[in-house]
Write a structure and sequence with these properties.
Helix content is 27%, strand content 27%.
Length: 143
C-alpha cells in the first residue's frame, strides 16, 4: 500500500465565542474549532484546469455538483468523499478528474479546496494525497 497521506489543520481560536458552541456535541465543536487548511488550492495555484461539465446542482447517488466552482465529484472519488467527511475535510472540487504523473506513476487525481484525491491503480484504492507534507516542505523552503 502507498504511504499514509497527511492532512494539515489550523485552529480557529475564536470558535468557542459562538453563542451555541457550548451546547454542541464534541464532534461539532471540534469541526468548528479545527479546519483543514486549503492546501489543495495552494497546490493547484497557477494551474489551469479544463472547464467543468455543466451538471444540475445538488447531490445525486452518482455524485455531487459544486455550484461555487462548477466542478463535480463522482465515482470512486465520490464514495471516498462522502464516507470520510468530504465537505469538512476537502471542501468543494476545484478541478475535474484527470491523469497526472505522481512519483513516476500515472494516476487519476482530483483537486479540492483542501486537498487532492488520488486513485492508486496498483492497489485499486482512493487515498488523500500527501499535500500536508508538501505544504510543510514549501513553508520550510521559504524560510
Amino acid at each position: 500500500m502507498p504511504g499514509r497521506a497527511s492532512l494539515t489543520f489550523e485552529l480557529d481560536a475564536d470558535a468557542d465565542e459562538l453563542p451555541e458552541f457550548g451546547e454542541l456535541p464534541i464532534e461539532q465543536r471540534t469541526m468548528l474549532a479545527v479546519h483543514p487548511m486549503e492546501v489543495g488550492r495552494r497546490a493547484a495555484e497557477g494551474r489551469e484546469f479544463p472547464p467543468p461539465e455543466p451538471l444540475p446542482p445538488g447531490t445525486t447517488p452518482e455524485g455531487r455538483y459544486f455550484p461555487e466552482t462548477g466542478y463535480s465529484v463522482r465515482g470512486a472519488f465520490w464514495t471516498f468523499y462522502e464516507n470520510l467527511l468530504g465537505p469538512w475535510r476537502l471542501g468543494a472540487a476545484i478541478s475535474p478528474e484527470m491523469v497526472e504523473d505522481i512519483g513516476g506513476i500515472s494516476m487519476t487525481v482530483q483537486y479540492f479546496e483542501r486537498g487532492r484525491l488520488e486513485w492508486h491503480p496498483e492497489y485499486q484504492v482512493v487515498q488523500f494525497a500527501p499535500l500536508g507534507r508538501w505544504a510543510w516542505e514549501q513553508r520550510c523552503q521559504a524560510q
